[in-house]
Amino acid sequence: MQDRNSKIALLILLGNFWFFIQILNGCNVPVFRYALERWDSDLYFAVVVYGSDGLTEAEQKAADLIRQCSIAETAAMNLDFYMYSREALGRSQFASVFHGIENKGDGARIYLFHPMSAESSGAIWEASLTEANAK
Known about the structure:
Elements: H1 2-25, H2 31-38, E1 44-50, H3 57-69, E2 79-85, H4 86-89, E3 109-113, E4 123-128, H5 131-134
Parallel strand pairs: 1-2
Antiparallel strand pairs: 1-3, 3-4
């Protein structure tokens, strides 16, 4: 009788061990792959700021190039695009971000910002609005 009970206990122990090994095996899809395929990308922000004279033809062409790649047009990039005059910038959602940024002349400039979910509030990159910089 005791031999039979020890065989049952051994089978239960082996069954639990097999079950535990199966739990450790887990999923065969890596987390980064799951994330790349199923999670939406955060949006970066490109903000064009122009002076009182508006945009020149070359600057408008550069701005259109960025807009065409933005999420609003073709969603080719995870980029949201905004344009403001220097006067309207103070009333925009980016007013606090531009508070410490100095005015660099009268020409149009482009600023690139991290997604809103990032803790960084400053511009990642800034340059004059030219076709080369837009690309």
